[in-house]
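Usage example:
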Amino acid sequence: MARLLMKGNEAIAEAALRAGAKGYFCYPITPQSEVAEYLARRMPEVGGVFLQGESEVAVSNMLFGAASTGKRVFTTSSSPGISLMQEAISYIAGAQLPVVFVNIMRAGPGLGGILPAQSDYFQATKGGGHGDYRVLVLAPSTIQEGADLMMLAFHLADKYRNPVMMIGDGMIGQMMEPVEFPEEYKEPPLPPKDWAATGAKGREALVIKSLFLDPFLLEKNSWVLQEKYEQMKREEVRFELYKVNPQNEILIVAYGTTARICQTAIDELEQEGVSVGLLRPITLFPFPEKQINKEAKKKNIKVVLTIEMSTAQMMEDVEKAVLGAKPVKFFGRTGGIVPSPDEVKEAALKLIKDKTRSARGTKRN
Amino acid sequence: MTDSQASIFTRPEALRDVVTHYCPGCTHGVIHRLVAEVLDELGIRERTLGVAPVGCSVFIYNYINCDFLEAAHGRAPAFATGFKRLRPDMIVFTYQGDGDLASIGMAEIVHAANRGEKFTTIFVNNAVYGMTGGQMAPTTMPNQVTTTCPLGRDVTDVGYPIRMAELLATSRTPGYIERVAVHSPRHIIQAKRAIRKAFTYQKEDRCFSLVEVLSTCPTNWGKTPAEAAQWLNDEMIPYYPLGCFKEPNNEGEG
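Running the assembly step on the lines above writes:
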């Protein structure tokens, strides 16, 4: 199929349809309302359901009902809206239903602003709702990857019967780039959806629920969930390396749009004779811990630098991955400000200077 | 069902043969039975999905024999909307108490009704939060004593009880809304008729339907079952008048 020039929000919407989504429920919020506008026209063309709900609270609970049919369903929102959906996400995880959520992140806390941010990292990866659960988190850095991961998200949601959340900063939603869709979306086989509520005809009635008043049954359900998360850690870790080589002095860890800015900085630093590599997590849960640990431990790496459009949220996971093998430093902008390649370069060069000074016995920064 | 069968009192197929957890004198059991009878009579049990609330009747799925979802508190109309939109061929009902529907779930029920979602809501109004132990509900009567209004509901402080049937009937969107009670055999027969009508409208793909059922809670009212039935009759019905507030063919007149 020919390459199309598409806005991120529209590419995400189209990708969902290509993956067989049959239900979309939404509430308008900047900077992702184009998804709803696109699907208001497109959903009826593919025989699917489009519904604008009265709030994100209602929308996310509609998704519980809709997912119970066994059909693929999803929503898109932005940070304050995703906060309102946390109630249902917890219930959906507890009841083991497949639902895809997209968070085109804007800066918080509170009403915050409408410019790009990555400040919902904790909310996405550590579970924003109550209870022992996780959502599988995907983080694209290009529009093409946004489309590809959106299709994958439906597969993974079905595979694990668990919420999957794709998070992109506002740039991923608003930017236009060429994107190509497969003629036909192909995916590995999935088990039959015998858990779906289809009416008690010729079988016992079933209940889709998250209530287990007996603590032993609730604990059992929690271990079933935990086993799924362990399986995700074994099978779903995705990441990309950029210019990682034995000359690297610094390993940068960054995701989403931030990682692309880091690539530009790395290219320029290379021209200036400074070698820096990038590890870009594509899954934020499961987090590429082992891979970061492996790269950080390499002899040539003096320091690991985490770069975010938030205030050292992912850094906590990077520190946990590095396990003290090397110092972990942070540079970030937040509040809707996108770091420039020059700022990234400066942050990296400062670390090298500090390291050199420290090697000469001067005071360490 | 043939006439000879109808004359014999049997357990509906849609009602499981189990003992309920409800308190003595509570009318949830009666309402469950009426719903089950209607599912049988309309022959829809095998294509019905119930949505259970948070409250005393959360375990309705242990008693009514059809597929169920268990909703978050107040969100049953959103669950029902999502499900019914993707499976319009199925029959969907929510079963909700007054705290669930009229307090935390006010937005969900108002918008579902106003969109004309084609599911049925059985709204059980017993003027109190039952499961949590008798706190004030939005439907608690003026001066009624509960654990969170120990001196009685002070309407100058927390306002008057909400009349949901009347409120929902103001919508321009076609719908069927009726209030009934289940404290006497005569009222139970009327309630059955309304519940059957509500499910029939849905079966015919006509409109949203809601039956508000005035119900007793002797435990949290601090009354015997007989006193509770009398109190419902004397105190609740004058404030919550029985009758049909909206028919799908007289929209906008509610």
